[in-house]
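Why do we bother with holo predictions? Because pocket geometry can differ from the apo form. Keep that in mind while you read this record for adenosine-5'-triphosphate.
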Amino acid sequence: MTASAPSTTAPPRRVATGVEGLDDIIDGGFPQGHLYLLEGETGTGKTTIGLQFLLEGARRGERGLFITLSSSRQDIEEVAHSHGWSLASLAVCELLPSLAKLQPEEQDSIFHPAEMELEDQSQAVRDVVVQHQPQRVVIDSLSELRLLATTPFLYRRQLLAWQQFFAERQCTVLLLGEHVTESAPGVRSLAHGVLYLERINPDYGAMRRRLHVMKMRATAFRTGYHDYTIRRGGVVVYPRLVAVEHRRDFALEVFPSGIAQLDALLGGGLDRGTSTLLTGPAGTGKSSIALAFAAAAAQRGEGAVIYSFEEGQHTLLARAAALGIPLQDYIAAGRLRIDHVDPAELLLGEFVQRVRRAVEEEQARVVVFDSVNGLMQALPGEQLLSVQLHELLAFLNYQGVVTLLVLGYVGILGESVQGPINLSYLADTVVLLRYFETAGRIRRAISVVKKRGSAHEQTIREFQVGPERLEVGEPLTVFSGVLTGVPTYTGAEAPLIIPK
Ligand SMILES: Nc1ncnc2c1ncn2[C@@H]1O[C@H](COP(=O)(O)OP(=O)(O)OP(=O)(O)O)[C@@H](O)[C@H]1O
Ligand SMILES: [Mg+2]
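The structure, written out:
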């Protein structure tokens, strides 16, 4: 056989994990017939995942065996019960180490009692496997076995024996354990794959969970950290988004808002497959402009989703009414959806998944984030936020979505906007809203300060929210102090919406 000859061994069958999102990370499931190590501190969800793995097998008609070396059968049943599962379709075996079994004379024998116990335990495990003939096995947990082994060598030898024993039976095994390597280096190298679960407690905000695949032989797995949650119903994993995997063909065309003057300012509208930052002080109308684009999508029969961090549905409905947008009708028709996001409960990976679904399953063509301040506040100290946000925006761009990011200034006058992320760099278009003053009256101004890849007006236009619609005026050219944040209109004769 030459080196270039195709391999004749069929790829191993994949064993579905039963954990939503996990199969996607490990290329369809665990390769069958091997030992896998599920490592994590206490309370990271190892037992839960173990049960999900066996229940998935049972659903597919495979026999599953749960061997508990530490907790009682009742403890396992309680975990299952908390998730609403019945263990009726599984075999649960309690093999708790018990020194009581050893007779006093045995304790005096030349054998180290713990060593005998290790041998006994290991044999007991093999016996129940032979008895039940399972295709899937969970051993909870390895830590107990390690405690029995007097040396790392004996421990490793037991695991090697298991490896062979289970491989002969084409049985796929999950070994659960905490601090696996501290007590026995080399265990990871024995396993066919290692999943590492961890918990992060930020200085502020809710605890977050994430996992990564440390290794998975013969598998192209997704590297990096993936967020996961444990909720009633089990563990759910949110695979890290890799934008380039989601390229889609779409027409490179301009998406108008339908408000003629606004579209003129933008050089026709916003381009599909680009993101736009709407920024300015509080009350300048950022959300209204975003809403206008979402409504434009709904009006022409396309889908739009607004992720609202601050405002509830009725604030948005009131705003829409003031702008003459029949938001309620669009919502009723299923073309526009308002997704209220609670920042306190936000898990970035889960949020990214929600956005992905909106685009891939609901065909949302306009997506609004109102506001990015809300998103940033929800994830304080999240160093990866900028990277993940970049990935999310790239994904939306590849999907041909018109993305609008609302970013509020700190003050009313818009002196500065300080954030951990330079969003004007991330966005393709930046629309700046300002207050300006003329003849003792506060007005609003809108200008486009950047538009990647196409032309736009360099002017400032007046702009007014309500009472009946969103109105953009004619270009205004005579300003002073535009960059101070509070420009003054010095034109004598003005094409203002409400003349001086
Ligand atoms: N019904 C539920 N809803 C939400 N979260 C739950 C539910 N049941 C369990 N949890 C979470 O799962 C965690 C425990 O999961 P599990 O018992 O699978 O962890 P473990 O890694 O096996 O822990 P240990 O090391 O103690 O065996 C709990 O800390 C709890 O936060
Ligand atoms: Mg457990």
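The two ends are 90 Å apart (CA to CA).
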